[in-house]
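Field guide to reading this record: the first block holds the primary sequence, the second block holds the structure written as discrete tokens, and the final block holds curator observations. Each block starts with its own label. This record concerns Cytokinin riboside 5'-monophosphate phosphoribohydrolase, catalogued under organism Ohtaekwangia koreensis.

BLOCK 1 — SEQUENCE
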Amino acid sequence: MKTKKKRVEEELIKEALEEEHRIRKAFKDKDWAEIKGANSWMIFKVMSEFVEGLEKLAKIGPCVTIFGSARVKPSNPYYKMADEIAFQLVQQGYGVITGGGPGIMEAGNRGANRAKGKSVGLNIYLPHEQKGNIYIDPDKLISFDYFFVRKVMFVKYSQGFIVMPGGFGTMDELTEALTLIQTKKIGRFPIVLVGKKFWGGLIDWWKKVLVHDGMIHEEDLDLFDLVDTPEDAVAVIDEFYAKYLLSPNF
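BLOCK 2 — STRUCTURE
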């Protein structure tokens, strides 16, 4: 029987070889048949993902998306906070959308399920086979191969973003939303960062470097709110739409 160390070493070697193959493949000359075949397949796959997403999500009604790390365990305070935020959002009349995986995503779906509200999961196929968590409504689980299609769905069908602590993926989703609003490619909707201690350093850097060096305007920092409690997170969403005399049944 192979030792754990041996299995880990073999897995690392396998990953390194696969990475080298992908790099070499990118430089390989392709004939017209290969190019046409590969591109045609990709176009139809992208189209099918858009069609499925648009058809299913058009019917879900007003929802708020909760972003955050897949690595957070149920014992983590941020997991419990995401669960409670989702629960309170449903009580206020919203459904909840997440990336469909474990961690913060699971917590968001769990809270929505606990409150008997709409629990949507936009899952992404990953090398380590991320699967939809058990708290997603069976008819509201959609799986994607392409991150960019998935991000379109998040933006198109969310009335707001709750951004919990997370890694590169969470940062990507946050900055995508900020950029689209900043450039007026989409309408303004509330973006709520939860966890002052977690996000504080990044926001300070935005102020001291991005604003100072003229990379963004100071008023761009008004595109998001920073809170520390579930109650404050949900209040930002409600107060934002109250200004427009809108309620969750719009």
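BLOCK 3 — OBSERVATIONS
The chain has a mean pLDDT of 88.
The CA atoms of residues 17 and 125 lie 21 Å apart.
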